[in-house]
Please model this.
Amino acid sequence: MILKGGNLSPKLSSAVGKAQTVYETIASSTPDFPLLKYGLRRSQLFVASFHLNHDFHGSIIHLISAGGPCEGAAFALLRPVVESYIKGMWLFYCADDTKIERTIADKSVRTSLEIMMNEVDKKHGHLHFSQIRSNLPRLHSFTHGGFQQIVRRFDAGGGWGSSYTDEEKRSLLVQASWTATAFARMYCLNAEGPESASRKKIEDSYEANLRSF
Model:
């Protein structure tokens, strides 16, 4: 059975367009990263995490823009968008050399997301991930085929198909774009310094397109 999707409503189509603008601004504005400035291995993992985050962000936009039937996969990708941001920040700012080398060697680093967020917050002196913490349990359910996904496999009349509302899809686009923008902001800050013109351009794109959407 193929689950067929429909056309996008004007409001959702607008949200997709705005998220796409943010995605393209990040893609075109991020500068080359000075890999040797902070240590090659550490910088490579930071850039790789950022690239992965950008990949997931674009995939969410693509899946929602298609109008179904693969919208569930778009929601499942929000947790990887968030995790790549948390892990990239932790690897860059907090991981010791042993954990950097274990990650490079594709070996397990037994550090939970909660510990990673706490260590990054401590390093920066403020709650860097305050907007993310409360949503993590819900993201787990969407990613691992939990009830958040299962109950959206049928509509009110009992028919089969994805039943995500336009508001849920719009919120997904905003959350993914906010996280991608936050990561891009830190990438540019470390690549160019506090007066980074690239960082300002990316921040301005999010503000203009999605801040009040």
Summary: Residues 30 and 198 are 6 Å apart (CA to CA). The chain is about 70% helix and 0% strand. The mean pLDDT is 88.
